[in-house]
Design a protein that fits this description.
By secondary structure, the chain is α/β, with parallel strands linked by helices. It has 6 helices and 7 strands. Pfam families: AhpC-TSA.
């Protein structure tokens, strides 16, 4: 009887750990970047490789950075929500095309609509790594001082825009409006 007790206790303990981990939302990955300065980059733009963009150029405004790729199915799923958000002209959205073929990326935006003010090309993936990107899509909100205030892993939904992103954007836009 005792020889069955130890495996039974082990199995019960393992079952409890697995059950607890199933209740975690995989999109709620912790980020050490929240509250810290957005990592610097100086990347070519997708629409004009001779022009470059950096977070320093965006300082003074609240902005959204969406990390995406044309080969990413989840990015395609969230694209309509990004296009709708861009049409509302509430916050500038910048794209970070992650480890993608620029021609395929341009073709995808031409087909599906381009919600981005500009898209930076991160061909090597180094900027994504600097931002702690686990996989695409991921979305960041950066405040006027260049501090990351929010990160979402996984595709954006209208519900996430309405309950998380837009309320935070409006709050951040209100901060400093009397400066």
């Amino acid at each position: 009887m005792k020889r069955f007790l130890l495996p039974l206790i082990f199995f019960a303990g393992l079952s409890v750990v697995l059950a607890a981990s199933l209740s975690n939302d995989p999109r709620r990955l912790p980020s050490t970047f929240i509250g810290k300065q957005a990592p610097a980059f100086d990347l070519p733009r997708l629409d004009a490789a001779d022009r470059r963009l950096s977070p320093e150029a965006l300082r003074g405004q609240v902005w959204v950075m969406n990390v995406w790729a044309s080969w990413c199915e989840s990015c395609r799923d969230e694209h309509a929500a990004l296009v709708a958000l861009a049409r509302r002209n509430i916050v500038p959205i910048y794209g970070l095309d992650y480890k993608d073929n620029p021609d395929a990326a341009q073709q995808w935006l031409k087909q599906a609509g381009d919600p981005y003010i500009a898209t930076m090309v991160d061909h090597s993936g180094q900027t994504g790594i600097d931002y702690g990107v686990y996989g695409v899509p991921e979305t960041f909100i950066v405040d006027r001082r260049g501090v990351i205030r929010f990160k979402r892993s996984g595709p954006l939904t209208q519900a996430a825009l309405d309950t998380q992103i837009l309320p935070l954007v409006r709050t951040l836009q209100g901060e400093g409006s009397d400066e």
